């Protein structure tokens, strides 16, 4: 049997090479279809991109909690009612303890804006740090240490928002402390904002 002619060898090599290229082309086509299918699935499920390609995250309302004193009308009332349920149902019976001159309290706590703001902040933190989906195992401990204890220490201090209120549970007292005066800045101290420079300067 004679050795194959060089032309025959080249023909076989060319056929092998053509088969390899055809395999790569088929694999590329298959992969391209898969990528297109995945892209369509992501687009159908909502990928955070709007029709114009801009991210919708910037359009979403912020997920930060509201500062209750900035709410007005029905929004404030709804938030205050929800907070009142937490104060009456959990905070007071569980954590308040005895009322004294060194641990004041006011049954009309909602009439003290500084108390409302602090209680509301502690309640928001409680919601996050006692929710098993967001808090982790140390959430309740963190809430007690970082939120509840400092909030109660300030609210119930002799010079806190309830300073003019109940110091003895047998003698209810409610006094809203006067707000200190605040003078407007003198006209000479008010500095005008500098004019923005032209874009082509």
Write the layout of secondary structure elements.
Elements: H1 6-45, H2 73-96, H3 113-129, H4 139-155
Helix pairs in contact: 2-3, 3-4
Element order: H for helix, E for strand: HHHH
Computed CA radius of gyration, to the nearest angstrom = 35 Å
Largest sheet: none
Report the structural category: mainly alpha
Uncertain residue segments = 47-55
Into which percent range does the helicity of residues fall? 40-55%
Bulk shape: elongated
What distance separates the N and C termini?
A: 88 Å
How many runs of DSSP E, i.e. beta strands? 0
**Number of helical stretches of at least 4 residues:** 4
Share in β-strands: under 5%
Query: What do the pLDDT scores average to?
Result: 80
In summary, what is this structure?
The chain is mainly alpha-helical. It has helices at residues 6-45, 73-96, 113-129, 139-155.
Structure description:
The protein has 4 helices and no strands. By secondary structure, it is mostly helical. Helix 3 (113-129) packs antiparallel against helix 4 (139-155). The protein is elongated. The relative contact order is 0.07.
What are its keywords?
mainly alpha, elongated
């Amino acid at each position: 049997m004679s050795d194959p002619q060089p032309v025959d060898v080249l023909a076989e090599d060319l056929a092998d090479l053509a088969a390899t290229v055809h395999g790569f082309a088929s694999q590329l086509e298959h992969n391209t279809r898969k990528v297109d299918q995945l892209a369509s699935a992501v687009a159908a499920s909502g990928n955070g991109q709007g029709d114009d390609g801009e991210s919708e995250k910037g359009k979403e309302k912020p997920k930060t909690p509201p500062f209750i004193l900035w709410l007005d009308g029905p929004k404030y009332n709804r938030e205050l009612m929800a907070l009142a349920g937490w104060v009456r149902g959990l905070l007071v019976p569980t954590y308040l303890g005895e009322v004294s001159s060194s641990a004041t309290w006011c049954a009309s706590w909602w009439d003290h804006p500084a108390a409302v703001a602090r209680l509301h902040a502690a309640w928001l933190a409680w919601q996050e740090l006692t929710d098993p989906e967001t808090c982790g195992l140390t959430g309740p401990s963190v809430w007690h240490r970082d939120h509840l204890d400092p909030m109660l220490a300030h609210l119930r201090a002799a010079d806190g928002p309830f300073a003019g209120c109940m110091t003895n549970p047998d003698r209810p007292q409610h006094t809203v402390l006067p707000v200190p005066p605040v003078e407007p800045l003198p006209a000479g101290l008010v500095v005008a904002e500098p004019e923005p420079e032209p874009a082509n300067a």
